[in-house]
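S.,

Sequence below, as promised.
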Amino acid sequence: MPDNIDPDLIETIAALVDSSKNQLDYLKALDPPVDTRLAESFISDLLTELMLFARTCALDFERLLDRVRDEVSTVPVGGARYTVGSPVTMTGAVARQSAAAGLPTRGVITGEYAPNGFYVRCLGGPRSFQLAEKYLTRGPAFQPLSIHQAVIEDPLTAEKALVDTTAQIQAAWMRGVRPNEKDLGDQRALTNVLASWNGMDAERVTQLVSSKVSEQVNRLVAAPADHPAQLAGEDAVLSLDQGVPPPERQQTGRDSPPGPALGPSGSPRTKGAT
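The prediction came back faster than expected:
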C-alpha cells in the first residue's frame, strides 16, 4: 500500500465501514424484511466505495473479491452463518416479545428447516421452535464449566445437567437423605453460568427449568431403589457412595417379598425397632 495515502481518506473509509455495519444490522432487523431493491442498492453503494478505496491504495480489487469468495464458500449453505450448536441471540420483534414475556432471548441452533430458517432451542423450552434467520444474530460464546463428573461446554448440556442435578437433590430430600455436597455445588454453578449466558438472574433460571425438574423428580421417586433410573438418574450425578435408602416394604402376606424388612439404613430391621 502506498505510504502517501491521505489520512483523511482512511478515516472517511473507516467511518463508511462502521456506518455500513450499523445499517446492515438495521436492515436485517426490519419486520417485514427489507425490500430486495433497497438491499441491492445498499450493497452496490458499499462495493463502489470499497472499489474506489482499493484503487486509491493500488490494490487489486478483483483479487480481494476472489479471496472473500473462497472464505464464503466454506460457510454452510442455507441459513449460511449458523450450524447445529451455534449460539444465537434473537433480534427485532421476536426479541422484544420474548423479553416482555420474561423468556430467554438467547438459544442454540438445533437444525435447519428452510433456506433462511432454523430450529432454535432456548432455556426451559420443551422443544425447538422455528425462527427466520433475519431474527437471529450470533450469540455470546458459552464458557465451559467443570462440574464434579464432567465438563459442560454448551448451554443445552448445562440445562440438562442442571435439571438432572436439581431433581436428584429434591428426590434425596423427599426420602429424608441429605443430598451430596458436590451436587449442591454443581447446582449453584450451573444455575449461575446459565444466568450469566442468558442475561437473566438465577431465580428466573430456576423458574424456567422447574417443570422439567418436577417431571424428573416424579420419575426418580416412582422408580425402585435398585432401578437404573434411580442409580443413574438419566445422567444424574448423585454419588452412589451416598446411597439412596431402599423404600421400606411392609409385610402384607403372600404378596410380600421374602427376606427381612429393611430399616431406613438398608440393614435388616430388628424386633421392636420403630
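Confidence is low (pLDDT under 50) at residues 227-274.

Coffee later?
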